[in-house]
Specification:
single chain, 106 residues, alpha+beta, 5-stranded antiparallel β-sheet, 2 helices, 5 strands, globular, disordered N terminus
């Protein structure tokens, strides 16, 4: 029996719609000495980031790393093929966190 993965189901598992979260989140380029990618900003707070992961195996195409900095959500959200997949996962994590925090009243 195949188990459901909440991350791949979108925000159907939460009461918050992905469109609402995407409106709240802005993506800012993050260029530092050792890393370049994009930071997910919720207001003035960095709540996640995506970047190219140079530590993956040579034959792997899962080179985009997604991280989340919200309390109660695990930091490492995994590696993905494209930047868009990583962004969708971070958007889902933010939506899940906002729903559980009770910030959206449906």
């Amino acid at each position: 029996m195949k188990e459901k993965n909440e991350a791949t189901e979108g925000t159907k598992a939460t009461g918050v719609k992905a469109v609402e979260v995407e409106r709240l989140v802005s993506w800012v380029p993050n260029n530092s000495q050792y890393c370049s990618g994009k930071s997910a900003m919720l207001g003035k707070w960095v709540v996640g980031e995506i970047y190219w992961d140079g530590t993956v195996s040579k034959g792997s195409d899962l080179n985009q790393k997604a991280k989340c900095f919200l309390p109660g959500i695990k930091n490492d959200l995994g590696n993905f093929k494209t930047e868009d997949e990583a962004k969708k996962t971070i958007i889902f994590a933010i939506g899940y966190w906002l729903d559980k925090a009770g910030t959206f009243n449906n």
